[in-house]
Specification:
Elements (H helix, E strand, L loop, with lengths): L2 H19 L2 H37 L4 H37 L5 H34 L8 E5 L5 E7 L3 E5 L5 E5 L5 E5 L4 E9 L2 H14 L7 E14 L2 E10 L5 H16 L5 E9 L2 H13 L6 H7 L1
Antiparallel strand pairs: 1-2, 1-5, 2-3, 3-4, 6-8, 6-9, 7-8
Helix pairs in contact: 1-4, 2-3
C-alpha cells in the first residue's frame, strides 16, 4: 500500500465517521444514553455520599486514633471512587450508544472518531490529564485524607478542612466557612495539621503555686471553647518547684488552625492583666509555645542521635 492509498482510506473513514455522527438520529441516541447515564450516576452517587458521610461521623467519634485514621482513609477512597464510577458509567453509555447506532463500524472508524474528539477537546483533555496524574500520585502516597486540615503550597493563603477529593480536584472548607475548589495540578505540596487542631502550651513562672493555679483556672474559664476556637478547655499538666520561691506551671490547650492568637496574644495579655489586678505572682512569662507530642518525640529521637560535643569550658582547658 502506497502512502497516497493510506491517506485516501483514512480520509474516507474519517468522512464516514463525521457523517455518521453528526446527524439527528445519532445525536438523539447519544443524548438519551448520556441522560440515562447521568441519572444512574446520580443514584449511585447518593449511595456513595451517604456511606462516606456515615463513615465520617463514625470516624469523628472514634476514640482510637488508629481507627479514626482508617475510617478517614476509607472516607477518602469512597470520595475518590465517586469520580471513577461516574466516568465509568458515562464511558459505558457512550460506547453502548455508539454500538447501537454503528453496529458494523470498522475499528478504524472508531479510531477516527476518537481522533475527531481529541482534536475538538484537546484544550480540555490535557489540563485534565495533569489533574488526574497529580491526584493519583497524592492518593497513592496518602498526602492527606478527608477531614484533615491542610494548607496548600505554594498557595499558602489557601487552607481549610478537606471535605471532598477526587482524582481531578480537592474541595476545602475554610475557617470562615468559604468553600474552596482547587485543581490537583496546582497543589505542589501540603501542610497537614494534626487531628483536633494545634496543641499549644502556656508556661508560667510564679512565686506562689496557689496564685498561679488560680490564674490558669481563671483564664481557662475566660477563653471561648468550640470547634473553631479553643477545641478543648485549657488544662494544667505540670507544676514543678524550681526553688523555694519559684514554680513553673504548664497548661496545655488545643486551638483550631488559624486561631493560635487565642493563646499567643489574647490569653497571654489576659493573664498579665489579671495578675496585675490581683496578687502579682508572675515572675517570668507567660510564654506560649507549640507542644505537639509527635513532634517532641521526633525531635527527642534526633537529639539522642546527635554526637556529643565538648563544652566551652572543656575546649578552653584543652587550649
Amino acid at each position: 500500500m502506497t502512502t497516497d492509498d493510506f491517506f485516501d482510506k483514512s480520509r474516507r473513514a474519517l468522512d464516514s465517521v463525521v457523517h455518521g455522527v453528526f446527524n439527528f438520529h445519532t445525536l438523539a441516541i447519544f443524548v438519551v444514553a448520556l441522560g440515562l447515564g447521568y441519572l444512574l450516576s446520580q443514584v449511585v452517587a447518593l449511595g456513595v455520599i451517604k456511606a462516606a458521610r456515615t463513615i465520617g461521623r463514625i470516624g469523628d467519634t472514634a476514640k482510637s486514633p488508629e481507627r479514626a485514621l482508617r475510617l478517614r482513609r476509607l472516607e477518602t477512597y469512597l470520595s475518590v471512587s465517586l469520580a471513577v464510577i461516574r466516568f465509568t458509567i458515562f464511558a459505558i453509555a457512550v460506547v453502548a450508544a455508539w454500538q447501537y447506532t454503528h453496529p458494523s463500524t470498522a475499528p478504524v472508524a472508531i479510531v477516527g472518531a476518537s481522533t475527531v474528539f481529541v482534536v475538538l477537546a484537546g484544550a480540555t483533555v490535557v489540563p485534565m490529564l495533569r489533574d488526574l496524574t497529580t491526584g493519583s500520585i497524592m492518593i497513592a502516597e496518602q498526602w492527606y485524607n478527608v477531614g484533615d486540615f491542610i494548607t496548600v503550597e505554594p498557595l499558602s493563603t489557601i487552607s481549610g478542612v478537606v471535605e471532598r477529593m477526587n482524582l481531578r480536584s480537592t474541595k476545602l472548607r475554610s475557617l470562615s466557612g468559604e468553600v474552596i475548589w482547587i485543581h490537583n495540578q496546582h497543589i505542589q505540596g501540603v501542610r497537614v495539621t494534626g487531628r483536633g487542631g494545634r496543641t499549644m502550651a502556656i508556661d508560667l513562672f510564679v512565686n506562689s503555686l496557689k496564685g498561679g493555679q488560680a490564674l490558669i483556672k481563671h483564664i481557662s474559664q475566660t477563653l471561648p471553647v468550640g470547634p473553631t476556637m479553643l477545641v478543648a478547655p485549657l488544662e494544667m499538666v505540670t507544676n514543678d518547684k524550681l526553688n523555694a520561691k519559684l514554680w513553673q506551671i504548664t497548661a496545655i490547650g488545643q486551638v483550631a488552625p488559624g486561631r493560635e492568637w487565642l493563646l499567643e496574644d489574647f490569653a497571654r495579655k489576659a493573664l498579665e492583666e489579671y495578675d496585675q489586678s490581683n496578687d502579682k505572682c508572675i515572675v517570668h512569662g507567660p510564654m506560649v509555645r507549640y507542644a505537639d507530642a509527635a513532634a517532641e518525640r521526633r525531635f527527642k529521637r534526633i537529639a539522642r542521635m546527635r554526637p556529643a560535643t565538648s563544652s566551652p569550658a572543656t575546649t578552653a582547658s584543652k587550649q
